[in-house]
Prior knowledge:
This protein has 183 residues and is mainly α. The protein has one domain (43-179). 77% of the residues lie in helices and 0% in strands. Helix 4 packs across helix 5 (72-101) and helix 5 (72-101) crosses helix 6 (107-117). It is globular. 34% of the residues are buried.
Amino acid sequence: MEEQRATGNTYEFNNKDFLHSFIGVMKTVLVRPNDFYEHMPTTGGYAPPFIFLAVCVGVSGVLAAIIAGVDVFLFLRFFIFGAIFSFIGAGILHLIAQQFFEGKGGYEGVYRVVAYAGVVNLLTWIPIVGLLAGLYGLYLQIVGLEKVHKITAGQAVVTVLITLPIFGIMAAVVSVPAFGIRF
């Protein structure tokens, strides 16, 4: 742990050292995703990655709400749906990796991949930059799936690509009543 502190390499969020750990995980995931996912524990509970994701989604939700004119309900929807979709998205990715490519990892490891890839939410509220950040988030998931499920990069890409339309349909179905979107 002292070595991780000295080098700034963090592979698991630790809420007891909240700020230092958050920044360390954030930097490692964003700058060295292969290293991060290679050393990230695939077990150890859902709380550390969930708290990390909740902070990222929460910050994004607050900033998006401010841009939208301080809409508190927008923040709550971002936060709640971000949390719920992380578990569902991890389940879909996990099932596809296992069923199509005989992935070796467990659901918890995939959830950790999704949660830590959620660091891109810190930038998704910014127009145009948010789109690029979202694409980078997909890349982070691909790298993580490759490591956790021990599948090839190509198989991880296909897993994420298969998941996208499923997730898109689910988001559209939920967005209509929750966000008041009209077509």
